[in-house]
């Protein structure tokens, strides 16, 4: 039987947790900034970060939106441990898989996920689950590597062989389709480079009423 990707991701990032921020500092800073720049304005409400890692996005978000109720979810207990040390006590952190979130339906005003999608066994199922916990009219914001770029297509091929946790990268058209099928209306799907070789995309979608 094939080992679930979630188990491989958990094991990999438990081992990387204490060094993760140092190793990927530039990538995290730039991808986080691009994600936060695309969060919709409006009432702070409740925000869930799926694949929250060491909590860097939530740390910046709680400074920008101090009245928001913030929750982070991640598979890795090691990453969650680092996040809990970084974040104030009123930011909740839970161990959870994107395809099975331990939250009631329609619990959040915004659900964000950054640099997690390419690890999911079933991206369509994961996005349906994100949409499930989102209130009608709420927004999903998803940032990930973009298969539209040649460098990312080449990296995807290499990682499928060399990285047991990696699953696949999607392109903008695939991400847009999955969001629509999850019951969300894409507002924007942007692609951009954070370095000369690293192509990214961020999709913003609104859950239908």
Spell out the key features of this protein.
single chain; 209 residues; Rossmann fold; globular
Counted by DSSP, the helix tally is 7
In angstroms, what separates the terminal alpha carbons? 40 Å
Q: Average pLDDT across residues?
A: 91
Output the CATH topology: Rossmann fold
Helicity level:
40-55%
Bin the strand percentage.
25-35%
Number of strands: 7
Task: Give the strand order, joined by hyphens, for the main sheet.
Answer: 3-2-1-4-5-7-6
Helix and strand composition category: alpha/beta
CATH architecture name = 3-Layer(aba) Sandwich
Describe the biggest sheet?
7 strands, mixed
Cα-based radius of gyration, to the nearest Å: 16 Å
User: In the CATH hierarchy, what is the class?
Assistant: Alpha Beta
* Count of spatially separate domains: 1
The shape, in one word, is globular
Poorly predicted sequence stretches spanning 5 or more consecutive residues: none
The helix/strand series, from N terminus to C terminus, equals: HHEHEHEEHEHHEE
- CATH homology group: Vaccinia Virus protein VP39
